[in-house]
Write a structure and sequence with these properties.
Structural class: alpha/beta
Mean pLDDT: 96
Strand content: 15-25%
Distance between the termini: 40 Å
Number of domains: 1
Largest sheet: 9 strands, mixed
Order of helices and strands: EHEHEEEEHEHHHEHEEHHEHE
CATH topology: Protocatechuate 4,5-dioxygenase, Chain B
CATH superfamily: LigB-like
CATH class: Alpha Beta
Number of strands: 12
Low-confidence stretches: none
CATH architecture: 3-Layer(aba) Sandwich
Length: 263
């Protein structure tokens, strides 16, 4: 039996619990991004810290969905498991996920194609997917979601799941990952630049020291190479640039991957 709704776990800590304050903040973050013409990406890689730290980085990625948000009917979300041990990839066992802005319907048919386990505990307190949801509600308000927490999983295992739900122009993929952790500012900046170059080159696998969502990113890179995707850096910064001290920083990157053959 599915629980009907997975409630928010980090509203009021990672992002505002007030619907009005949350929507205002999301709108402000998206409005701060300079809009440039160009195609909509198939995939985003965006960070998952509290909005005070990584919200601006994430917004630079999500702003790329605004031009065609009405055409997006499905968002595949993959994020690392921080709060529970998990082997493989897991769905939440719910029909919807809730934020202060409302409920997002989970696409049960897509989850069935993915053939993943159900692990409500892996999702119950997990923030890596949850912090993406208000952005999804803002840029693709009609989209259903396919939320997948990734634990100890090989690149091929994650790639198999991604292939099963890849879809066409109606579907986009969001991979949730921060970069380096707790390095001095300049050291972290250099480390993240190297990692960013590898992501753009579709060069995996990455280690957990390079990206905390490495398992999901590595599966994405396998599929991206197969499908001939083109990647670019949209934004690269750290907590030392936003709201934190510079003696120990966490790196944040927004990356866009494009399907050059898609119409």
């Amino acid at each position: 039996m599915l629980d009907s709704v997975r409630p928010p776990a980090v509203a009021g800590t990672f992002y505002p619990a007030s619907p009005r304050a949350l929507r205002s903040l999301i709108d402000e973050l998206l409005a701060s991004v300079e809009k440039t013409p160009g195609p909509r990406p198939k995939v985003l890689v965006v960070p998952h810290a509290g909005y005070a730290y990584s919200g601006s980085t994430a917004a630079h990625g999500y702003a790329l969905f605004l031009r065609e948000g009405a055409r997006i009917s499905r968002v595949i979300l993959l994020g690392p498991a921080h709060r529970a041990y998990l082997d493989g990839v897991a769905a939440p066992g719910a029909e919807a996920m809730r934020t202060p802005l409302g409920d997002l319907r989970i696409d049960a048919d897509a989850l069935a194609r993915a053939e993943v386990a159900v692990d409500a505990e892996a999702h119950r307190r997990e923030h890596s997917i949850e912090v993406q949801l208000p952005f999804v509600q803002a840029v693709a308000p009609s989209a259903a979601i396919v939320p997948l927490v990734v634990g100890h999983a090989s690149p091929d295992e994650v790639a198999r799941v991604l292939r099963s739900v890849w879809g066409g122009p109606e579907t986009v993929v969001v991979v949730s990952s921060d970069l380096s952790h707790y390095l001095p500012y300049d050291v972290g900046r250099e480390a993240d630049a190297r990692t960013a170059a590898r992501i753009v080159a579709l060069d995996g696998p990455l280690s957990g020291q390079e990206a905390c969502g490495a398992a999901a990113v590595n599966g994405l890179l396998v599929v991206a190479r197969e499908k001939g995707l083109r990647a670019r850096v949209v934004r690269l910064e750290s907590s030392g640039d936003t709201a934190g001290p510079r003696d120990e920083v966490v790196g944040y990157g927004a990356f866009a991957l494009y399907d050059e053959g898609a119409s």
